[in-house]
Specification:
The protein has about 550 residues and is mainly alpha-helical. The chain has 16 helices and 4 strands.
């Protein structure tokens, strides 16, 4: 090998190594265990931005989880504690003729304990006395003035304990056709036009009625009652006078007066359904039941219903097996007292009109039995006796009750109306009657209604006698009370022309006379058919469809 070849081979064997790559740039993530944002070569602003980005990267997961759980817990709490408050507006209550109202089935009524016996003097029954015991009630206060208030939203704070929703103002919207149609302003005007002809005239009788209602308003006790021998009976008679005129707790002028009277009954009813301050014979119970059932019929107030049902239940349970009634609702008695029976029968009828049959077991049978009970006191030739067959001053009571209870054409009624044809109505000569003397205002109260229900001809003749005389005999006090327009107006009352007629006093005289002048529009006369159309301006004895449309808000 030549020297040149040897040199070339040596160079090939000892070739230089390949050229090394250029050095890497300094790493910014970590050097010597330091984070990139700790690099001393970075400015303060760059390190701050880098640190913020790193925090966001590491915190988004925990933050998102926290938000998710908070929202989930909130949703669960909302479902668990949702607002259950519901606005309730009762639908109109429709009372239909000859059909039970669609009401919830009531609970079985509690057993009513008989009232504690009240000591009283034994006396011979007399027709010239209504039968109130002479025992004064400790509950009766003196004459007072009426407190101001509006609707059912004000009153005694003790009322809620009795179940009366006094804390809530109740607005009742009534559509009264047939049942209580005559008690509206238009109904009264129409009824007076139909049945008031030949008498004192509608303007005169209504003026007398308003004066009497204002007198009662002025003389109402501050607790809502009226003074007399028995507070429940007097308060009920006064309340009936307002209800007959269509006055309810929402009436502009007399609403507070009516409200306070109803409150008094609710506060003073005991567990047995009876009322504090009742008289010895307990006339108070049927008279109070009568007023309360009629008040419920007009207002349909749910808190009044319980009081009315408890009151009328005592009447139903106090009926004799024969159909009659006696003092203190003694069911075991065989004595049928026509005066006491009359209030019981009026109360039974009012309960039926109010649609309480589903709530008062035995109401319909009690009405049918009451007709039989009155027949036991009827005279074959006409008339009714006090506690047996006769022809006394309570003849009008017997005839009226049989008319109201569904027997207006029974022979006992027809014969009695013939017997009463010669009755007179005169304060100067009150005892010139076919039945003789007695409690004439009390007797006239029944006779006036019986004649109204018998026939148009019978009542037309009577209207010429009674209405002018009542208007004439009213005792008027000029400018005695503030009227609805703020001006002073007159008030008026009556005093019976018969001394010692009864123990009810001026409140009873005034209430009964007022009810007589309201006879034109209280009820549809029994000679009218119940099926009469809604154009009739007077109230029906039994409800029809759309008679009462009540909406309570």
């Amino acid at each position: 090998m030549s020297n040149a070849e040897e040199n070339m081979a040596g160079q090939a064997a000892v070739a230089p190594p390949p050229e090394a790559p250029p050095p890497e740039a300094p790493r910014k993530e970590t050097e010597g265990g330091r984070a990139s944002w700790e690099d001393p070569n970075l400015s303060f602003q760059e390190r701050l931005r880098t640190q913020w980005r790193q925090m966001l990267v590491h915190l988004w997961g925990p933050a998102g989880s926290l938000v998710f759980h908070v929202v989930a817990i909130g949703v669960l709490v909302t479902f668990a504690t949702g607002n259950n408050t519901t606005e309730v507006i009762s639908e109109p209550v429709m009372l239909e003729a000859k059909a039970e109202p669609e009401l919830e089935k009531p609970p079985e009524p509690e057993k009513v304990k008989p009232p504690e016996p009240v000591e009283q003097q034994v006396e011979t029954p007399q027709e010239n006395n209504i039968g109130f015991s002479t025992v004064e009630s400790a509950e009766i206060g003196g004459s007072g003035t009426q407190e101001t208030g509006v609707g059912l939203g004000t009153g005694d704070p003790n009322l809620p304990d009795k179940g009366f929703e006094i804390a809530t103002t109740v607005k009742s919207r009534l559509v009264m056709r047939g049942l209580y149609a005559g008690r509206t302003a238009g109904g009264r005007k129409g009824a007076l036009g139909l049945y008031g002809k030949g008498g004192a005239g509608g303007a005169a009788t209504e003026a007398a009625v308003l004066r009497a209602l204002r007198w009662l308003k002025k003389n109402q006790n501050s607790d809502g009652s009226w003074a007399g021998t028995a507070a429940p009976a007097m308060t009920a008679m006064a309340l009936l006078s307002y209800l007959a005129h269509g006055e309810t707790p929402q009436s502009p002028e007399f609403g507070n007066t009516v409200k306070k009277a109803i409150e008094w009954f609710i506060l003073n009813q005991d567990a047995t359904g009876h009322f504090k301050g009742r008289d010895g014979n307990d006339y108070s119970q049927p008279i109070s039941a009568y007023a309360l059932c009629e008040a419920y019929g007009l207002t349909q107030h749910p808190s009044l219903k319980d009081t009315a049902v408890k009151a009328i239940m005592t009447v139903v349970k106090g009926q004799h097996a024969s159909g009659g009634f006696n003092y203190q609702l003694e069911a075991v008695s065989e004595r049928n007292d026509s005066s006491y029976m009359a209030w019981c029968c009026q109360a039974l009828k009012a309960a039926k009109m109010a649609g309480l049959e589903p709530d008062v077991p035995g109401l319909e049978p009690a009405i049918k039995k009451a007709i039989a009970g009155f027949k036991l006191n009827a005279n074959a030739d006409g008339g009714f006796g006090y506690s047996g067959p006769g022809r006394g001053g309570l003849s009008g009571a017997g005839a009226l009750c049989m008319q109201l209870l569904g027997a207006p054409r029974a022979a006992e009624v027809v014969n009695t109306m013939k017997f009463l044809e010669t009755c007179t109505f005169s304060f100067a000569m009150p005892d010139q009657q076919p039945y003789g003397g007695g409690s004439q205002v009390y007797y006239w109260y029944y006779i006036t209604q019986a004649k109204f229900h018998h026939s148009p001809e019978t009542f037309a003749a009577w209207n010429k006698l009674f209405s002018p005389e009542l208007c004439k005999q009213q005792i008027i006090e000029k400018n005695a009370i503030e009227g609805p327009d703020g001006k002073m107006v007159d008030i008026g009352h009556w005093v019976s022309p018969v001394k010692n007629e009864h123990t009810g006093g001026v409140v009873q005289d005034t209430s009964l006379c007022t009810l007589m002048l309201e006879v034109y529009y209280r009820y549809l006369p029994s000679f009218k058919k119940i099926e009469a159309g809604p154009e009739d301006v007077v109230a029906a004895v039994a409800p029809k469809a759309e008679d009462v449309n009540v909406k309570i808000k």
